[in-house]
Amino acid sequence: MSNSAHHHRRTGGLLWLLAAICLISFVAWAPGPGSAHKAAAAPSAFVRIMHASPDIGVADVFLDGQRALSNFQFGTVTDYLAIPPGPHKVQVALIGKGPNAAVITQTLSVEPGFAYTVAAIGVQATGLSLVVFKEDNSLVAGKAKLRFYHLSPEGGPATLSANGTPLIKNLGYLQASDYTLLTPGRYTFDVDLAEQHVSQQTTLEVAANQITSIFSIGLALGMPKLELVARQVAGTPGLPDTGSDPGPSAASPASSVGVPLALPLGLTLLLLVIGSSAAFLLRSRR
């Protein structure tokens, strides 16, 4: 074998060796599949609490034995509270009585990165409990989102109308409707409990880029009387992609096309090293 052929073979071998070393380094450095998603995953769940039980009265709410809310009155809806994901013991007791005197004790489980509404519901005759609704607080640009919650016991199915037009029909007790998109503006909402021939109304300015919740609470034929409680939120605080954070989620891809817009750092270094090594060896041949 000539010196030229031997030198060419050695040069090719060195190039392959350098490429292999850089490739191994790049694979070891590169983050695994889904690592960006895991890093960006929200560490908390977000929960708001609604007092919709006519028979509980003013209450304290305990989370895992610790008081989370005090002086919690009928018809109140809290802001979203960030809590660790997983199972939690929730107790509702008359104010000042402590968790050992709880009238409701339930274990509820929540997932990280999700928003929930937890409602204290029911009457003594049929039982008191908590009901959980998982929320979708993503927004539709320029539109208002509406969800209706029927939490009025002993009233039968409920129909929600907007400016005289039925919007959500025959929603059962302890159910929440699907989300409805509305043009922003002023609306008069009526809730009709047809079986009891009872209705109630409220007038709201429904805003763009917000989620409006309407809760039907109280008794059709007793006290406290049927009433509507409305709340509007612009997404979930601390939860990306729900309207509360104007920046994109950290887990969002830079582009939806198949070809990346920029080469990964490791691959760029690999190409630079191979190119530099090739140039050096070719100059040595000469």
Mean pLDDT: 78
- DSSP helical segment count: 3
- Total number of beta strands: 17
Q: Would you give the CATH topology of the domain at 138-235?
A: Immunoglobulin-like
Distance between the termini: 19 Å
| CATH homologous superfamily label of the domain at 138-235 | Domain of unknown function DUF5300
What is the radius of gyration computed over CA atoms, rounded to a whole number of angstroms? 30 Å
Percent strand: 35-45%
* CATH architecture verdict of the domain at 138-235: Sandwich
Structural class: alpha+beta
Based on Cα principal axes, name the global outline: globular
Largest sheet: 5 strands, mixed
Unreliable residue runs: 3-8, 14-40, 245-286
Classify the helix fraction into a percent range: 10-25%
- Which H/E pattern describes the elements? HHEEEEEEEEEEEEEEEEEH
Which CATH top level class of the domain at 138-235 fits? Mainly Beta
